[in-house]
Amino acid sequence: MSFYVVQFLTGLASAASLFLVASGLSIIFGVTRIVNFAHGAFYMLGAYLAFSLTERLSGTLGFWGGIVGAALIVALIGVVVEMVLLRRIYRSPELFQLLATFGLTLMVEDLVVLIWGPDDLLGRRAPGLRGAVDFFGQAVPTYDILLIVLGPVVLGALWLLFRRTRWGVLVRAATQDRDMVAALGVNQKWLFTSVFALGVFLAALGGALQIPRDAVNHTMDLRIIVDVFVVVVIGGLGSITGAFVAAVLVSELNAFGILIFPKISIILVFLVMAIVLIVRPWGLFGKPEAAARQTPGLSVRPWQPLSFNERLACVGALIVAAALPLLGSNYALIVGAEIAIFVIFAASLHFLMSVGGLASFGHAAYFGLGTYGVAFLAKFLGFPMIACLLLGPVLGLLGAMLFGWFAVQLSGVYFAMLTLAFAQIVWSIAFQWVEVTGGDNGILGVWPAAFVATPARFYWLALFVTAVSVTLLRVLVFSPFGYALRATRDSGLRSEAIGLNSKRIQWTAFVIAGTFAGISGALFAYLKGSVFPDNAGIALSVDSLVMVLLGGVETVSGAVIGAIVYKALSIWLVSYTDLSKLVLGGFIVLIVVAFPKGIVGTFGSLVDNGRLPFFKRALPGASQAEGAE
Amino acid sequence: MRPGNLLLSGCLAVVMAGMATAATTTSALAQSEIKIGEINSYSALPSFTEPYRKGWQLAVEEVNAAGGINGKKLVVISKDDNGKPADAVTAANELVSSDGVVMISGTFFSNIGLAVSDFAKQKKVFFLAGEPLTDAVTMSKGNRYTFRLRPSNYMQAAMLADEAAKLPAKRWATVAPNYEYGQSAVAVFKELLSKKRPDIQWVGEQWPPQGKIDAGPVVQALAAVNPEAILNVEFGPDLVKFVREGNTRGLFKGKSVVSFLTGEPEYLDPLKDETPEGWIVTGYPWYDIKTADHDKFLKAYQAKFNDYPRLGSVVGYELIKSAAAILAKANSTETDKLIAAAEGIKLGSPFGEITFRKSDHQATLGAFVGKTAVKDGKGVMVDSAYRDGANFMPSEAEVEKVRPKD
């Protein structure tokens, strides 16, 4: 019996660490709507700084001073980031801030290694809290007891802050309806900055408090960020109590789950999230999102099919691309093929995001299913390459049909997180089902047939499939189906009222996007010759989001440019510098500031505003699209 | 200047600096050079790859100081793989088709090693794997183009199982990261130990995800099955968390622990004064090896870098030394001649002479087995002895059974 009590307490201690970080994320999202990908980076910075401070300061006061001092310093860094970077892009399309914080995260990962060195660092133990107390023969670490107490204390303090201060009232009001708060004359700038500072402080404090238990290292950020997002979403966005309950739920299920299924940890949080979101679409304590005053496509210029001249230009670009084998080396062709494949992948997500208004955080699932579809057909059934390429993506299609049906019942970030959960489920199946998928050792020997084995021919194949795919997706945008999909994006109520079955339309869009992702995955398997679980991993999902946002989410085909820029840049940087993350992150931050609507989006705005007269075209009312719904 | 512009110029400076370093690394082609490609997880795993890089840089310097390879200068072109198999294949493509290297070497993670070895097989390129430990590289997924330097999972398990069999403990529990490396380490160890000691019971197992161990509940769950001995395969930050929780909760008290890789400075040093005492581990006690071969390496390394070597340093050093020896023996850069030269080649190493076995292309490089202890607030390995890899390899018959025929 005492064992179960102690296991419960251990779970509570884990929950407290998770809650601190999650509460910060939840507050930031609630008020500013920023999906703060850099939250993990702030957590990690908190740990590193706390390590340095506690090494220098001595005694009990020195230790705790170091912990709190580290959190305060990181909060200051957060303030600077908010004022210098994020303030510039609050008016950017939804999720664009994700791109900025992603760039920051990349930079921080390399910076901590540059500053603190590559070795794992062992922080000091808290003075007086090194040991454990005996509980009927079971040891309970005293530091755990501190954390168990700290969790509810922070929860209580936040509750008081939000219920008993004017600032808290404003924060709650902004969480509920930030346009109204702005209309009532509240200085949003400082409200956002202070909220961001508090959120970052909590993240850094969570990180700093880990140093007596953890090893401080440069992967801490990615270890926690996804779990924290999951906790926030399970609890319900913007709900602090929800985050606490979710943290406890997840930690306890893990603590007891491993007693029965020792391998459960790898997927547990995602399973819990998937179940919670299917049963309660707004998380445990969340409320349905208020109907947005602004349509998601608010600043979108009305889309138009390409004019005759523009089509000519596209054909010209395609001919130039197809001539690459005459000029480039074999390596250039292999990179070209990879970029082409990612153009399809990014365009498929872009279709879902920009036309359907459905941002998927787990699009790699269907890419990964495409790669495995090919690998199964080629290795187990011995199918020829053409058959594999045609049938492999069917696995992506089937996956999208199954998961999409559940996902489109939700919207906004909840939709995004449910797709993430499904992607993680696909990933963990590929990872754990060693007999079939080979686990993380993957499936080897998926090489192209002889007739496309040379780099030039494979490049042409990839280019051809890409051209066809992107054209098809564009045709879909301007088809009746595309208009219907845009209607469901712009106003769910109105589209329902005119008789559109919005869920079915969104589901169809999801399946289309998944199928095209599967096609790109199928080609990818042949390009690389081997298939691994990380083809369905979070990193790839994030990459696809970055490509879409970089191109411009409010454009018809911005993802094409986004994919080319991002992929070419990252391949080139990884090849030529060891600080590829720092430089790539720097680039992304630069692009975010220079092109606040994405590369293609900003370019398009310049055209419409007459700054680039050469591209000017007759677009009635193009610049007046900023009207209310 | 507004703060915003300051940030922007900062970013711009970083970008420029990155490009500048990029520009300087591309060097001109020369007839009197032999270029070999090297791929590793530099950005994903700096704690291993930094000392590893120093190791191979030292080797390149020594090889060229001694006249290069039959008079030609040895050049290593090094690429980062971002910790991803797909990126490693891109890098391999670049090395082979753009940089014109005569062989590929390196890699750390097992799946990356396998992806590159399959690439080597497809493109008919010589591949010398350094670190990836999975048995598949030389056994079930082995191919004639791929050779491996480090003692495989099987070999390390065999070394530890030998020691474990001498322990009185009968009730064993295991904890390992939930991926191929952890899974196969536990499977081989169990098999070998149970063969030697049929009386042993396996009473529990824990499989935390790699990099994300929730150490408290894992330690509790292990304690709950009341084992007499524990096999640990955790490493890196996971190991630190596991050891800290285990120490606080008294998990290791009165229990024997056998642990993979823990004696390697990369994983032992971060534990500092919290190093658990008396664990039986494989590793690299550089401070305690008194052979002429190792002295020479140690002195050269310390003189060049003013730092002590980690195991990664030895792997990087010996990787390039092996590549140079193979190239010199083949006196050619043709893949088939390199393979012929590498099969059965003998060469020196900081640990003594090693051979690349013909049947499975595995080197006989061994490892040190010893016990952990704390000395002056630092973790060290004591009572260590070198185990020659040759005595712990799978038998030729087993290789014959598992390895695909070329």
Q: Top keywords for this entry?
A:
heterodimer, A: 629 residues, mainly alpha, ABC transporter involved in vitamin B12 uptake, BtuC, two-stranded antiparallel sheet, two-stranded antiparallel ribbon, 26 helices, 70% helix, disordered C terminus, B: 406 residues, alpha/beta, Rossmann fold, 2 domains, 7-stranded mixed beta sheet, 5-stranded parallel beta sheet, 13 helices, 14 strands, globular
Number of domains of chain A: 2
Quaternary structure state of the chains depicted: heterodimer
CATH topology of the largest domain in chain B, what is it called? Rossmann fold
Which percent range describes the beta-strand content of chain A?
under 5%
Largest sheet of chain A: 2 strands, antiparallel
Compute the CA-based radius of gyration of chain B. 22 Å
- Per CATH, the class of the largest domain in chain A reads Mainly Alpha
Topology order of chain B in helix (H) and strand (E) letters: HEHEHEHEEHEHEHEHEHEHHHEEEEH
Shape of chain A: globular
pLDDT below 50 for ≥5 consecutive residues: which ranges of chain B?
18-30
How would you portray this structure in words?
The complex is a heterodimer of chains A (629) and B (406). Chain A is mainly α. Chain A has two domains: 2-279, ABC transporter involved in vitamin B12 uptake, BtuC (Orthogonal Bundle); 333-617, ABC transporter involved in vitamin B12 uptake, BtuC, CATH 1.10.3470. Chain A has helices at 2-32, 39-56, 59-84, 96-116, 142-164, 166-176, 178-183, 188-208, 220-235, 240-260, 265-279, 308-322, 324-327, 330-355, 364-379, 385-407, 412-432, 434-437, 455-477, 480-490, 492-497, 502-528, 538-551, 558-576, 580-594, 599-608, and strands spanning 121-122, 132-135, 138-141, 215-216, 443-444, 530-531. Chain A has a two-stranded antiparallel sheet. Chain A has a two-stranded antiparallel sheet with strand order 2-3. The relative contact order of chain A is 0.12. With 406 residues, chain B is of the alpha/beta class. Chain B has two domains: 30-151 and 291-365, Response regulator (Rossmann fold), CATH 3.40.50.2300; 154-288 and 368-392, Response regulator (Rossmann fold, 3-Layer(aba) Sandwich). In chain B, the strands form three sheets. Chain B has a seven-stranded mixed sheet with strand order 7-6-8-9-10-13-14, with helices on both faces. In chain B, strands 2-1-3-4-5 form a five-stranded parallel sheet, sandwiched between helices. Chain B is globular, with a radius of gyration of 22 Å. The chains are: A mainly alpha (629), B alpha/beta (406). At the A-B interface, helix 1, helix 3, helix 4, strand 1 and strand 3 of A face helix 1, helix 2, helix 3, helix 4 and helix 7 of B.
